[in-house]
What does this fold into?
Amino acid sequence: MENATVTVEEGPSVESQTSYLEVRYDRMTDLVSVRARNATLQTLLNKVAQRANVGIDIREEVALGYRVSASIGGVPLEYALQKLLQEFNAAFVYSATLSETNDSTVPRLLRVVVLSKKAIQARESSEARQQPTPEGKANGSREHPRLDPRELLRRIVEGKREDVKSIVDTLREAGRDEERERLVEALIQRLGDGFFPTPDGVIAALRLLAPDRAADALARLLQEADPRVRANAAASLGRLQDQLAVEPLSLALSAPDAGTRQAAATSLALIGGPQAMRALIDAYIAADSAMKYPIWLAIVSHGDARSQSALARLIDAGHRPVEPTPDEMGARSQATASGR
It folds into this structure.
């Protein structure tokens, strides 16, 4: 998508410069437009949250007093938020993955958790200090022949895309098989460690080093009892961007909780391809009108032209989605919980 440009600068907004902020949100298509100049990121996020009815959780240690200039036109809500928070360690999940209770779940809403890099680094460094360092092993560094997988994991969790690629390229060198295997094992364990959502760097590294093993591990997590674990696994499979994820995600479209169904539908639309789109269309046809809604939302937000045309024909033929009310979703969640 090229119709989104965002500039983030440190420091407070400059009073001598003209400030401007406009946020528009289309509830039916889940598309958002933003125009901002010299506005604080905090104010901008609050406005997006208000317009789109999105839950945005910001850790106390995260400072969002940055000034922002943005021009974002008609893009999916999740993509717009990713652009606005590109300088932060931010996580995007559907509301069901973070909700303490299920009685207010609305599958179309997204919850965003904003974490500072400092917070992530502190947690990873604490974990590393609690583990003994094998004697004779040098700390991870390009200048040493041996790499410390704990240090690499920390860098991947907090690192930018180019840093992740640099680590992966190093591990692909001859003689790095053992170190590469140890890191892959650590990354696989990270998928199910209970921290939601999985950091972008972890997904990016696994996509380059071991996509099949990552897909298998996430598919197993789709069978967990905790709906937050299932929804996070479904969302992570979409971020993996591998056709191996299509089959388990197709099965997850019939999961008992709305959060997992929505995450699975969105992930399939993001992965794309004939098999993924066929799974979405088949599930849409088979579902009742309320269950059609998350699939409809995924296709109109992320689907390709062919799948959107197929969806339009189905709607014209009478297969219309109905957005569930919060009360309906709460009753359905309670019924699911009592049946487990």
